[in-house]
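Researcher: Here's the sequence for the chain we discussed earlier.
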Amino acid sequence: MEERKLERGLCGLYCDALRLVIVDNRLLDHQKLCTLCHELVHARHHDPGCGIIGAKAERRTRRETALWLVDPVEYATAECLYDGDSYLIACELGVTVQVIDDYRQILSDSLRSCDGVALHVGTME
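Model: Thanks. This is the structure I predict for it:
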């Protein structure tokens, strides 16, 4: 892992050919943590970079990063404590708002996938 100034709008990157993660050294600590975790997920999958394949890899990476960084019990507690305020929840959990938004998307997707499942509660007669 290396820290250096990256071009504007770029927090981090992973180069599979060099097996190198680079994180922008101007980020705050919680931003560095989230960026490093994100880039390590790319590294684990040997993601080649941007493009059509990159979009699918980016969705997977954001999902895995959120699952890695957000503890479900701590999230639920913060959600109640801060009445759903993304910024305050992110501050409480030490992650970025993007990670919280990605985690919420995972929860939303999970609820939608369960929505179509009919449950049958029967009685023994």
